[in-house]
Amino acid sequence: MEMPIEVMPERTGHITLKSDCGEAALPRCEQATVPGVISQRACALYGARWMLAAVKDVIHLVHGPVGCAYNAGTVRRKSYSIATTCLEERDIIFGGREKLRRTITEAVHLHPEAEGVLVYVTCAAGLIGEDVEAICREASSTLGRPVAPVLCPGFCGVGQGDGHDAAAEALLEHFIDRGEPGPVLENSVNILGEFDVQGDLKEIEKLLAHLGLNIVCAVSGRATVENMSRARRAALNIVHCRRTGQAMADVMEKRYGIPQMKVSFFGLEETARALKAVGRFFHRDGVERWVQDRVVAARRQAAPYLHRLAGKRVAVFFGASRMGSMAKAFRELGMELIMAGSQFGCREDYREAGRCLDEGTLLLDDANERELTEFLRRRRPHLLVGGTREKFLAHKLGVPFLVFPQETSPYAGFNGFVNLAREVAVLLDAPVWRLVRPGWESGPEQPVLPENVKVAVASRDGMYVDEHFGRAEKFLVFTLAGRKVKKIEVRAVKGGAVNCRDGAARGFPGEKLDLLEDCRAVVCLAAGHCARERAAEKGLLIMETSDAVPAALDDCIRMINGEGRTDGSTN
Ligand code: SF4
To answer: Where is the Dinitrogenase iron-molybdenum cofactor biosynthesis domain (predicted)?
Structure first.
């Protein structure tokens, strides 16, 4: 299969199309970014912060210039309080050892409640060859608490993934390994690579609680010095994110004999599979049935949103190992996946993602902005899902964007799937996308609205068409000029809701039709036979839909123009 675009020779192999060539069709990955190319990757320091930011009850100290501390302060859109040695030119020339010693001591005096200190090594400290490990050892014995170096200077490795490894090593050596050995804690699990974004961990915890399981330690969504010291006694390590949890799970299996299981709680199928596998491990009965019921219930809850998403094209570009499970989740929403890419995914991540992609889907490793722009223009997704760095690119191109890890509600578990469906539907229906069209869509493709046409919409909340014609107590009347809404007025119905059967005596539908006599069309959830007949006599079109108001207006104009609706129907 041919490449869709020409790429720089150095990038050959990083961009592939899914085909049946197996391993050969996977993109080249885990390699340094081409010098001079501005990719979407972050440095190892940021990778370490990504993994450790949520560790409670420790001081996070960045040993480096203040700019690094600024970079490390905000993780997953949340601002964390951090300390820094604020290395300056003088320190870089004469060394920053003393400054680091003083800063550790001062930070502990200011926060005596802190159970430990994490010292992040930056490029500047790494380049001058500071022996941070020795200083941390010394400080640890003086202050009587773990002071752990995180060896993550930005230049080490090829991207933030190497910072995850440095972070995992710091936790293992200085916190988990310090715990006392003891008997295995019954019905207990650790979750490695779970950051409790917007309550994801609580969703997972509720599901595991149904199986009678307790979480000893979640790294790092719920990691404390105390629970990390007990983590070595858990019965099972659940690896939720491969890139941040796998290395720890491997070491813990080797050192403490804790078995591991790689699962995902994103999407219905993956959540179901995860719970069944964990249930089997702990010999629980009835899990299959319970899981099946939950899947059915979640599908039912998500159903109102799914018809809006069916067939919409989605492109995903984020971290690493969630690429595959999220790709599946979007497919379960009925969306067509046209691109799956990652900043620092490994071969196994692409292999896993490839399994749930169709032939011809683009696989993209460590994309730069130019490539992303080109692919978005050519593949024309209805939605791009990515990290915060891709957000502004998408918006500039007029493409709806969903940030992941998410910023609103949990996406993990069965409830998370429903949240995902709802939020994607609302995002795609947002009125702004009627005004800001993707750069590749030209004007003539849009319905042309006649001048000063009035359309009445039966909507209670102003967002969706959600009211029956007869039951409507008010209508929003839009005066349209070209593609713009010139005026919106609310027209209240005298006497409130009525229906064809008992409404004749109260002037139904005559009074309602009189109220809307200057309108060309009425958009409502449904309308009775008599209302339709009388409306037709008066030359008023009735269109039934449950769409968002802007989409419904577009469809209605198509109908007025005799073009048929976007779903192919004519009423
Ligand atoms: S790349 Fe180096 S200098 Fe830049 S933020 Fe990361 S650690 Fe600091």
So the answer is: 462-554
Give nearest CA residue, ligand 1 atom 6.
154
If one counts every other C-beta atom within 10 angstroms of the C-beta of residue 506, the result is: 12
From 68, 120, 155, 160, the mutation candidate for ligand 1 (largest count of ligand atoms within 8 A of CB) is: 68
Residues 153 and 280 occupy one common structural domain: no
Q: Residue 2 has what pLDDT?
A: 42
Q: Across the strands, what pairs with 117?
A: 59, 147
Residue 567's pLDDT is: 53
Cβ–Cβ under 8 Å, residues 52 and 118: yes
Are residues 83 and 100 in contact, defined by beta-carbon separation less than 8 angstroms?
no
Which uninterrupted H or E stretch holds 261?
strand 260-262
pLDDT digits (tens, 9 = 90+) for 267-291: 999 999 999 999 999 999 999 999 9
Q: Whose CA is nearest to atom 3 of ligand 1?
A: 123
Question: In which residue are the tokens 């409306």 written?
Answer: 535
What is the identity of the amino acid at 528?
A: G
Residues of the chain with pLDDT under 50: 1-3, 443-445, 568, 570
Q: Does 453 share its domain with 477?
A: yes
378 and 437 within one domain: yes
pTM over 0.90: no
What CATH number has the domain bearing residue 236?
Answer: 3.40.50.1980
CA angle 6–7–10, rounded 5-degree value: 150
Q: Are residues 451 and 553 in the same domain?
A: yes
Pair (442, 320) in one structural domain: yes
**Which residue minimizes the CA distance to atom 8 of ligand 1?**
68
In this predicted structure, what is the pLDDT of residue 443? 47
330 and 378 together in one domain = yes
Co-location of 246 and 362 in the same domain: no
> Which residues partner with 188 through β-bridges?
214
Atom in ligand 1 nearest the alpha carbon of residue 44 = 6
Measure 253 CA to ligand 1 centroid, in angstroms.
Answer: 33
- For a pocket test of ligand 1, which of 33, 41, 45 has the largest count of ligand atoms closer than 8 A to its C-beta? 45
Domain extent at residue 481: 447-560
Write out the DSSP string of 171-231: HIIIIITTSPP-PPPTTEEEEEEE--GGGHHHHHHHHHHHTT-EEEEEEETB--HHHHHHG
The C-alpha atoms of residue 454 and residue 477 are separated, in whole angstroms, by 6
Q: Buried b / exposed e across 352-390, counting CB within 10 Å, b at 16+?
A: bbbebbeeebbbbbbbbeebbbbbbeeebbbbbbbbebb
Same domain, 479 and 500: yes
DSSP 458-469: --SSSSB----T
Is residue 522 in some structural domain? yes
With H, G, I as helix, E, B as strand and everything else as coil, classify residue 117: strand
